Amino acid sequence: MSDLLAIGEALVELNQPKDGAPFMQGFGGDTSNAMIAAARLGAGAAYFTAVGADRFGKALTELWLHEGVDASRIVVNGAAHTGLYFVSHGPQGHEFSYMRAGSAASRIGEGDLPDGRIRATKILHASGISQAISSSAADAVFAAIDIAHDAKRLVSYDPNFRPKLWPLRRAQAVIHEAMRHCDIALPGLDDGQALTGRSDADAIVDFYLRLGARVVVLKLGKEGAIVATLRRRERIAAHPVKAVDATGAGDCFDGAFLTEYVRLGDPFGAARFANAAAALSTLGYGAVAPLPRRAEVEQAMAAADR
Question: Domain for residue 306, yes or no?
Answer without folding.
Answer: no
